[in-house]
Structures are given as C-alpha cells and as structure tokens.
Amino acid sequence: MEAIKGTFMTATFFFVLCGILYAFISVAQIPVRRYVQNQTVAYLSNVQVAVLAIGQTCASTSCQSDSIIWNISVSFAIYIIALLCFIGWWFFTLFVGVGFVALPLDLIHAFRTRPVKMDAAQYVEAKRNLGNEARALLDVGIKLQKEGRDLAAKGASGYKRKHAAALRAFEQNYYFLKRNIDVLKISYDLKGGNPLFYYVQGFFGVIAYVSMYVAGCTRAN
Length: 221
Prior knowledge:
Blueprint: H1 2-24, E1 27-37, E2 40-44, E3 64-73, H2 76-112, H3 120-154, H4 157-189, H5 195-220
Antiparallel strand pairs: 1-2, 1-3
C-alpha cells in the first residue's frame, strides 16, 4: 500500500509540474534562415541549399535573406516526450560516466577475487565460515522484518528512512554472501574454473583504467 501511495504521489507531482511548465513554456523556438525573392518567402534550414522556385540561388541580386526565430506551439503529449528525453539524456550522461569509472575497477576486483582451486579441508572450512555468515545475516533479516512491521504500525517517517538504509545494507551483504558461495562452488566443484576468463577480465580492466588515466591527463593539458 505504501508503494502504491508513493507511486501515485510521484506521478501526481510530475504531471502537475509538467502542466505548470507547459503553461509558461510550450513554444518551440527554431532558428531558420528566411530567403525572399519576388515576394516569395521560403523557410529553409541552415544545412539546405537556398534554391528558389525559379532555379536561382541567393546569390541573385533580387534575393534577400535574414535570420528569424520560428515559433511553433507543441501539443502536451509532444511536450511530455521532449521533457522525458531531456531528463533521460542527463541521466544517461551521469550513469555512463559512473559506469566508465566503475567498470575497470569491477574487472580488476573480479580478477583479484577469482576462484582458486582448493582441497576438501579448505572447502569444509570455507563452507563453515560462510554458514556462520549466513546465519548471522538471517538473524539481521528477521530483526529488520520485525522492525519494518513495527514502523508500519507506528507510521514514523524518520525511522522509516533509517530502516530503508538498513535494508539496503542488508541487500548488499546478501549480494556479497551469494557471490562468495558461487566462488566457493567454482573453487571446489570446478577446480577453480577456467583461469583464462579471469585473466582476460584483469587484462581489460588494466587497459581500460590506463586508457581513462591517459585520456584524463590529455584533456587536462
């Protein structure tokens, strides 16, 4: 119910904001070049050749040109699409920049934490340690579940934010635990897996990181 309420409030705020913006900014201003000859006006873009109806170009002495702004009113649907595209490009720029930085580090980290072949004794010890971590994480999950139910009954917004942060930390720890279990299975069942795959990851991670560093130094100079 809380999720539906939050979604409804977000959608309402978005459409109200779009309505206010559309009321004041709903005209597309397009710069064009106007060519006039014999009382004939043609609107052409800057990349088009100014060829008039009778085959003459604007080099003709009877041709005049000037720059104007062409105001075009857009519909509300087109306005929403343009606004979403504008916002989407900003998010695309942000996340692509973060991804370019994070991807080389992830590749290098995957090489550093790659599965290695282990014997039965090492497998039993590692499995026992992961079991202890899983039980501790399960206790934390049960505690968070109880706290979530209590907060839902009380309706305390400040504590809900802290609870949401604790849930994100719990999900992160669960992700790392699941990855360690997968690494353990590969290390024992598959004898470490294919080492070439992890060496390729490390190689491309180093190449990507060095390329980013060189590109950054070049732009700085």
